[in-house]
Write a structure and sequence with these properties.
38% of the residues lie in helices and 20% in strands. The chain has helices at residues 24-38, 63-70, 89-101, 124-137, 190-200, 216-220, 223-232, 246-252, 259-278, 297-303, 320-330, 333-336, 357-367, 369-378; strands spanning 8-13, 45-49, 52-56, 78-85, 108-115, 141-142, 149-155, 160-164, 167-168, 180-184, 204-211, 239-244, 282-284, 311-312, 381-384. The strands form 2 sheets. Strands 1, 2, 3, 4, 5, 6, 7, 8 and 9 form a 9-stranded mixed sheet that branches. Helix 5 crosses helix 11 and helix 10 packs parallel to helix 13 (357-367). It binds adenosine-5'-triphosphate (ATP) and magnesium ion (MG). Residues 184-186, 188-191, 208-210, 267, 285-287, 291-292, 294, 343-344 line the site of adenosine-5'-triphosphate.
Length: 385
């Protein structure tokens, strides 16, 4: 790859992908595809340069929009806005000096250097030493403790990249590299966070949302559409089954204190059916141990009795405050707390806390759950993006 001197570029690193040995190239290809899709509509070019991706922008580009979109792409470990220099001590020194001089607010700095091309006549220690001298001359304290900013130099055969204060990327794995997950998505706080964790580990989302409305249009007019949109900023594609709950409700109401556990058992059965159809290998929920009546160890166990796919609950050990912190960070919180006609909220009180698996199985049989799953799925609306 060719570089001019003094070009400003966005440099992306993909840390964790290196752990993946043989599959590395597939992962990087997927990451490149995902970045291009997430930046659709922006002006940029993207090229791979060894263990980094280089984004070049132009006059038409909205650099802030590009940077903020990149921060949401899973599989990127670091995002740096860097300036190029000749890969020589003199070239690096001149570029670093210019960069430091333009940042008068910086009074102390940590200087790091990495050299991936080992045949150059100088090494990283030489770079750091030289740049420390330059910083001192400019009245900036080069220190490794209590520094205000960091200057990173990355030297390759073709160019050196120099940046101040790179940002951590979203981390995780490129969406799609782990296959698909069926995610039970309510309108609440927890399940959108669980969906984010699923995507973070490389899973493509297939949502199921069970609603208490007359038709799916009413459900889609509500907050669930907004949640899909926010979650789409982390990966633009999803499939979503918008499913009515009335068929289930018509036959479960007579089971009073088991209603909530039966509802969860029903949802997991729907999820397993959808997973088979969609080729998904895992089911995700936003459950956290002991948070509500349906989430005691006994009830979690009774609900998933007979389900063959793994039911993954990334929030299982989280306190509500911890979940809320993530929900705020990913932008779903404000939508999640808006009032909503939730299927769970219309259930009767005094739910059983320690349902037995056999009892749940027996009640599901009495309800003819298989037929309810089939009919509910037939009545559901599939939306895709
Ligand atoms: P959440 O904030 O995600 O709604 P919660 O604390 O309200 O969670 P529950 O209502 O017991 O807990 O739901 C537990 C999990 O069951 C949810 O995290 C979600 O995965 C699934 N779930 C609940 N309601 C629905 C729904 N209407 N449609 C699809 N999945 C649901
Ligand atoms: Mg809920």
């Amino acid at each position: 790859m060719q570089f001019k001197e003094n070009e400003t570029l966005i440099v992306l690193r993909f840390g964790e992908l290196w752990l993946k040995g043989r599959n590395r190239n597939d992962y990087i290809r997927r990451l490149v595809k995902n970045i291009k899709e997430q930046l659709a509509g922006e002006h940029f070019t993207l090229e791979r340069h060894f263990d980094r991706l280089i984004i070049r922008t132009n006059k038409k580009s909205d650099n802030d929009a590009i940077l903020s979109k990149l921060k949401n792409v899973f599989g990127i470990s670091r995002v740096e806005v860097a300036v190029t220099a000749k890969p020589t001590l003199a070239g690096i020194s001149a570029a670093a000096k210019k960069m430091l001089s333009s940042r008068k607010e910086i009074k102390s700095i940590r200087i790091n250097s990495h050299r991936s091309y080992k045949l150059l006549p100088f090494n990283s220690v030489d770079v750091v030493k030289r740049l420390r001298e330059i910083a001192e001359k400019l009245g900036i304290d080069p220190t490794t403790k209590g520094y205000q900013a960091e200057l990173n130099v990355s030297v390759t055969k073709d160019a050196a990249f120099i940046s101040i204060d790179g940002q951590r990327g979203a981390g995780g794995l490129p969406v799609g590299t782990s296959g698909k997950a069926v995610i039970l998505l309510s309108g609440g706080i927890d399940s959108p966070v669980a969906a984010w964790y699923a995507m973070k580990r490389g899973l493509e989302p297939v949502y199921i949302h069970l609603h208490a409305f007359q038709d799916s249009k009413q459900a889609l007019d509500g907050k669930v559409t907004e949640l899909f949109a926010i979650l789409s900023s982390f990966y633009p594609h999803y499939r979503a089954y918008i499913m009515p709950s009335h068929l289930f409700q018509a036959s479960s109401f007579k089971f009073g204190k088991y209603e909530l556990v039966l509802l969860k058992a029903f949802m997991l059965r729907v999820a397993e059916r959808v997973a088979t159809k969609e080729g998904a290998k895992v089911i995700f929920t936003g459950e956290s141990l002991g948070q509500v009546a349906s989430q005691t160890p006994e009830n979690l166990s009774a609900e998933q009795y007979g389900i063959k796919l793994p039911v993954l609950r990334p929030l299982i050990g989280y306190d509500k405050e911890e979940i809320i912190k993530v929900a705020k960070a990913i932008g779903t919180f404000d939508v999640s707390i808006r009032p909503y006609r939730d299927v769970c909220s219309i259930k009767s009180r005094n739910q059983k806390l320690n349902s037995k698996e056999e009892k749940v199985e027996e009640l599901l049989g009495k309800m003819q759950i298989k037929s309810i799953v089939t009919r509910s799925l037939n009545a559901s609306k599939l939306i895709t993006a």
